[in-house]
Amino acid sequence: MSLLTSDDSRKTSKILRKAIHFSTFLSILSFIAGLCVLAYLVYDPDKTYFSDNGLLPGLASREYTSEVGKADEYLSELKNITSNMKDNDDLPVHYLREKFVEELGLEFYEHRFRLNYPFGQRPSFDGKNVYAILRAPRASSTEALVISTPYRTNSSIHGSNLPSVAIMLALARFFTTTHYWAKDLIFLIGDKELVGIQSWLNAYHGLTETDWLEHGRVPMTSGAIQAALNLEIHSFNPKSIDVKIEGMNGQLPNLDLFNVAIELCNRESLPATFHGTSFTSSANEWKNFISNAKTLASMMTTQATTLPTGAHGLFQRFAIQSISLEAFGVSASAKNQPTTTSVNIARSIEGIIRSLNNLQQRFYRSFWFYLLPSNRRYFSIGFYMIAFGLICLPLALRSLKVYFEAKESKESKKGKSLWTSFESAFLSHLFGIITLSIPLIMARIDTRNFTFLNQLQIHDQLFSILSAIALISLVPMIIGLRKSENDIRIQAMVSFLNAALLFGSISLINISMAFGLTALYVPLIFLTEELNPRKASPNFIYIVRSLLQRTILLMIHPLSLHLFCLIGLSIFVDSEFHSSENSFNDPMFFMLKHLRRAFESQRKTILFFIEDWFLYDNWSYPLMCLGLFPVWLQLWYNSLCKIRE
């Protein structure tokens, strides 16, 4: 800090002054080096291994054989019951009570909750979770493991989840015949998708109720939950099983838990995949690199969205290590391919639970911050932060260069300081706070009283207001656009440091989001700075440079980035894009179709992120409002400022 606050820049070392002099070259070199380091990590990642020997995955002998056929019997009964129910989305509580209590002799409880939708007419939805507890014969209910599943029938957009309930019942039946459990086992079936499981977790841990989710209290608790295994089994005859780890806000479980699941599934002849791909080791190194790169890109894209890939992501907020196992039936075109049975699935789950039962304490040895280029390879925070630091370093170098240029200028003698950038920084963050407050205000007032809003759907209301704020924020209301060259330098330096601070902070929570934003913003920030004609001039070159600079800035506006991501997603999931015949017969129509689809989705996805913020404490919307939006506004205001003649 003394380097930045010293008034005598002549005392700066020669090495530092040379580094500042060549900062542009060093910045380019650093950015390219960061990308090369990441590419090398993908090319040569480390092998996964078990850090905690207490898991003892090799000694967890699987014994599930006597219950063969029981899972299929339960599944048949569940299908018959749900087909005869008036509302087949309701939990078959009586059937589950009969099985857990009368047949298995477990403790069985119901947990009621209410969801109060915060917008529009504010409808309420009542839900009911059910859970059973198998008390550990070797302990006093101080620790517990959870096997969970969200209840879904064929009417769900995610497909039927009844096989998960059936295999849970079959495993519970088998577990009651064994006596080696050192932890309680909780079998949780959640209602209303993730809302039910979130409400149960809130109630179990005694959290304060919110206006949106009245979670009440659970009738009975067990000990501290050590780990959770969420089941999303859609068929008993899958080709493979996918292990899902990404949680809310990009959180990840302890790597040992993931390794246990991969190892035990493979030992039961149940191919375990990660993002749909399994580990392949080929003599062709380029083929291995491409496979690793695709898997890593899929993981980082998923993690950057901050959305969980399953109900397991809700447990991680409570420091509960959790994963999801997802299995789909084979398609009609792949009927001849080898598949597995419910026995393979049940034995894999049994092995995972028994390994977790061996834990003497919470997970603490292995990594919580890592990236996976395959299910058998990884690299940890100690390696990927090198790559991130290198691509973020240009912002710090540029800030130092601008700082010393400002200190050595003649105007610095007049007592100017960092306070000259206060106006732009204050206005930028003020608009960020206003944007963050809009959903909170709309949740407190009845928008039906406003005629011009009442005619719009909720997502259109929010999008209209947010778009209006975004347009208003483009006008620098209290900022003087004519400044001295020194003031402009200081203002630019503060915006660079603000961006570096934001990206660095995000990297400690969600490296995928931080890496994506940094890799995009850093080169474009440098490009817009070089294009910025500081001195106003009516000539053609000035107009072109200004127009190009502001066009680039508008393209990296948070709303624009969101739209571009949706366009890319729309194109990627379009079967026409993957077809070799019809993809680009009419490119204009093709792009307009996806632009329209993305624009329609944008309004809804903004609402979805706000709902997730209210219900699940998702940070995406607050982070964009209080972090990325103010940073972008500071860059925008910098582009408008010109040197005072």
UniProtKB/TrEMBL annotation:
One of its GO terms (biological process) is attachment of GPI anchor to protein. One of its GO terms (cellular component) is GPI-anchor transamidase complex. It comes from the Eukaryota. The keyword Manganese does not apply. The chain crosses the membrane at residues 20-43, 378-397, 418-442, 462-481, 488-506, 552-573. It holds the Pfam family Gaa1. The keyword NADP does not apply. This is Glycosylphosphatidylinositol anchor attachment 1 protein. It comes from Blomia tropicalis. Keywords: Membrane, Transmembrane, Transmembrane helix.
